[in-house]
Give the backbone structure.
Amino acid sequence: MTSLVHCPLCERPDTLPYHRDRRRSYLQCTNCALVFVPPVYYLDAERERAEYDLHDNRIDDPGYRKFLSRLFVPLSQLLPVAARGLDFGCGPGPALAAMCREQGFDMALYDHFYYPDRSVLEQRYDFITATEVVEHLHRPGLELAMLWHCLKPGGHLGVMTKLLRDRAAFSTWHYKNDPTHVCFFSVATWRWWAKQVAADLSFEGADVILLHKPNS
């Protein structure tokens, strides 16, 4: 039956068992290398929102800001003065957007639960951030394509997500234990996706991915 489960990133049916624990099973796509859980394990919207409500990510929390600076610092160095950005999946405490605004960048916010105004997804931006977001997406292929469409030529997409290393590390990885984490990206997966959209790709540390959209 697992062979009938399509990859949520590339939509191919070429998947193989990757891991199983007492809560869920995990598949890996042989095309794009994404590791993911089948839809049967997705939480419904009410339970998913309840999990997010447990997070205490305040705008003025110095620890949270330090965490976000792993993306903010390298990304901000690439941006022109007065660049306009979108904080996608910003959560209830959009600290990264506040940090960007403090540097003079104009920011729009979107979050499925907390800032659900989808009109911001019909606009174009110089940069887009998605911190600790992509691992939650049920349809990452469609969502990433949408974000890439929202990005102006020459713009930057900055992503923060823990990167999957290998099967042995995955078996004891705390990151997979969050029930809202359903997609796990590796360096190979990001290289595959960057190739699909002709993006320039770079990595900062263990969990920051920067993608630059060509001007033409």
Q: What stands out?
A: The CA atoms of residues 15 and 176 lie 18 Å apart.
